[in-house]
Amino acid sequence: MPLVVVILGLMILGLLMIYSTSSYNAADGDQTGYLRKQLLAEALGSIGVFMILLFPYEALKKLGRRPWRYGLLVAGAASILLLLTPLAHSAKGATRWVQIGGLNLQPAEIVKLCLILYLAGYISENPEDINDLKGYMKPFGVTMGAAGLIYVVSSNLSSAIIIAGIGVLMLFVASKKWVWQAITFPGIIVLASAVVLNIVRTADDVSKLNYRFKRILVWQDPGAYLLDNGYQTLQALYAIGSGGLTGKGIGKSVQKLGTIPEVHNDMIYSVVCEELGLVGAAVIIILFGILIFRCLMIGLSSKDSFGMLICVGVMVHIAIQVSLNILVVTNTIPNTGVSLPFISYGGSSVLFLLAEMGLVLKVAGENAS
Amino acid sequence: MAEEKKRKKKRIPADLSLQQTITIKMALMSFAMFGVFALLLLRTWSIMRDNGEQYKKQVLSQQEYDSVIIPYQRGAITDRNGTLLAYSERVYNLILDCYLMTHDNNNGRSMEPTLAALSSCFGLNVSELRIYISDNPDTRYHILKKNVSYDEMEAYKAYIENFNATVTEENKEREDKLAKANEKAIWFEDQYRRTYPGGSLACDVIGFTTADGIGQYGLEEYYDDVLRGRNGREYGYLLAENALERTVVPAENGDTVVTTIDSYMQSVCEQRILEYNQKHANEYRMGEMGSDDTGVIIMDIHNGEILAMASYPYYDPNKPFDLSMYDEEFINRLVEAQGSEEAASQSLWSNFCISQSYEPGSVCKTFTVAAALDSGTLHDGDSFDCKGYLTFGEGDDTTMIRCHQRFGDGQITVKEAVEKSCNVALMLIGQRLGKERFLRYQKNFNFGLRTNVDLAGEMRTASLVFNERTMGITELMTSTFGQGFNVTMIQAISAYCSLVNGGYYYQPHVVKQIKEESGAVVENVEPVLLRQVVSESVSDLMIDYCIGVVDEGTGVRARPAGYRIGGKTGTAERSGQGKLDYTVSFMGFAPAYDPQIAIYVVIDRPNAASQENGTRYACLLCRDILTDILPYMHIFMTEPLSDAERKELEERGLKDTLSQNSASGNEAERDEQMTEVDTEEEQEELHVLIDSSTGYAIDPVNGEYLDPKTGVPINGDSGIFQDAEGKPIEIEVLTDPGDESDDPRE
Fold first, then answer.
1. Are A35 and A19 spatial neighbours (Cβ–Cβ below 8 Å)?
2. Cβ–Cβ gap A173/B26 under 8 Å
């Protein structure tokens, strides 16, 4: 039950901030438009949670076993490939949604859910396989394939990173050979970063650089690249900085008034800081901490490895997304579009997050019985 | 041992071993996550700590303190019935924010498609815009176009929306190449535009407003401070604790001015004036319209309210510099005379009725006669001998002035002198009156003084009339028949009203009421009675004489079909002109025995072959106007119609209200007064006595008092006034004879 309270708390806080940030910028004068859309998605998600809870745990486990597991792969891949069909829907300059019956779904979210179920099923069925390189490469390949597909089809680097992160960390948790993983992956990340940084710094003509590389330059000096993404980053920093300990008070943000682009979306944390101050930021981070902790406790008391792995996947997903989002908003890492779970505006994101929470609650229910 | 070990290993199920691994690593990982979260919070805190003050200032400095003006809405001008003559319509200014245009590209918004949209929706020059933006990249406010209508604004917004929707589809691949239009750098500011829905209707009375909202000419100028409101303001300021406070002071809109003008009468006058000028164009002088100027004023004689004031040429206050309603020849002549096209336009703005003086001519004979009668130097019935000329003065100063009737009018009475417009008789009257009395009465009639009508641009005529020093015998003689001194139309008709309303001189006015935007009345303009000019009996005589002019004198053509009116014609030589030019006029009142309105028609330099034709035109124009206006005022016909007149009325779509009149019986009180000219029999039949102490009618049957309007007994039970057969009848209330000194028949 504490998990449900935490989720509700985050969602209420999120709705509050969405209303606060979106009501001013609402294009057609409909001040509660975003709020109502988000509320609808959360209601749908809650129904999803109940449906999952009614679903027998054994059937859920069966979904992770062969041959159903391949169904998950097919479903994930198919949802990505839907982006190449006329169902694809573009917004804000990127094709990341498919429109089905008036609902905008982000295939990346579907893939995340499928991947968690797939890996939990695969690892619990083949516990020893991942301890050698050959066996490890199979689930790792699936993970990287999904991430690669997402990146290629929807040019969505942040989703690809999150998917890769979920997979790699789930495998890491399950693998007995953990020393080389713990060293190798960070090593690869550091090496790749160094290479990229070098490319960017030695570039003769900055304007010819890919926009992803440019974002690294922006990250290092947002004030110098206002025309690229620097403006958004800098304004978000101003918002955070001007919040102080207790903030300006709810609804009193100045920066949300058209100054920070997409403020109800990826940048919502900056307005949380501006309106609610460090206290508000701490409350949100602590709520996420409790969420992680509850996932950990449910996972640890799970009777089988499948349930544990599901908890690991969900926990990792949320942790990565929270970390990346706040790191971006505080300009600690280069800008990439990651939303803050339960807080940022985004229907399909909250829908699938709730579905994942439903899985965790299902595991918890199974523990209790 | 090895086997045992193996067995031991096998005994531990694979899943359990996996669970152990997960347990350890999961716990470790979540601790790592807590650590990361703590770092996130630390990072947030460090931003607040290190840059908090700087960023707070930065945020405040980005706010807009500059005040935004909220424009007021200028008050409307309506006619007496509330019809809008002028109002301020909400329009928009198209504003370019160069700073956003060049800096707000982070969401893939680009300048080029925005410029293309501006060019296609508003016809703006793209290269000029580009130059302006590159020259002033930090300008936040630049008016690209004024007076953009709501529809134009919506069309632009729809264009941008559609454009941005299509762009996204086409450029899925790369975010930075997106060419979305920048919707934030272009915005619309509220503004008001003065609109005159009637076009040129009452243009001379209303005037117009400049683009800056300053009233020019007419009411717009005279009542500028009433119509004008006060701009509101939205501004921001810093409070002590580094918080921004924005305050809105709403705009105060201007008051509405309700005029005494009646749109229908006004439009009839303008229409007829225009018809006259078009019909008689090129009649005598080629390439000219029917006149240089034509003016008509209609006034309510009982309170000085101006019901219509029209003149030709006119202009459109919506586009005061537009001359397109005139033909090329007219414009060329006007431009030639005025020097430039701008001056030509400007020449049309002044109101002929108040801003131009002329020698009034014979219409002034009424004033001379009234003055003589009032001063006791002349009596009704006095007669004069006209030999066709009069000589006066002695020796070298001997002057001879001819009557317009070369061979003399013979022995004529005062009334006939007015009817025939005899100059000699008038000069003889003038000799009796003398210079001092003449000047005193002229002053009483307000000649030489401004009437102070509430319109901008009334002309001063102080130097255009004679005074004690400048008036010699010749000047006195010519002045008696309206030559030698100048008046404006408004002066003449205001004075004339006093002649026919019992002698009361009211200050003419155009505004009845001033209202707030909400409709609350700020001020009711009451009639201003300045003085009594002549006695009531003189006024009665003047009415009689003027009716004679139309009945059998020079003004017969001015009588509208079915009505009896009074008036005086006027033909004046324009002095200071080499060739003989005339100003012809007709000044009259209607209806004959209960004057309600006065009308004055002046045609300056009629395009007519002869003086007689010119005078006739003035009468005909008056007749034309009254034919439409009198039925509109619910004044019933009193005169039998000839077949030709009946046909004329049918063609105009007007009813014969004479026959209707006897059938309809009792209507409004006003109509009742008109129908007093009924047959003797009817009068006897319905004769009701009036109780002199209460003013109520007395029922001849039972002696009860009756309500004069409804015929219902005041304190009786029967409710309906019945005749012998018990059938309800309508009564005609007759006032006690003798009280009605207004009635000239008595």
1. yes
2. yes
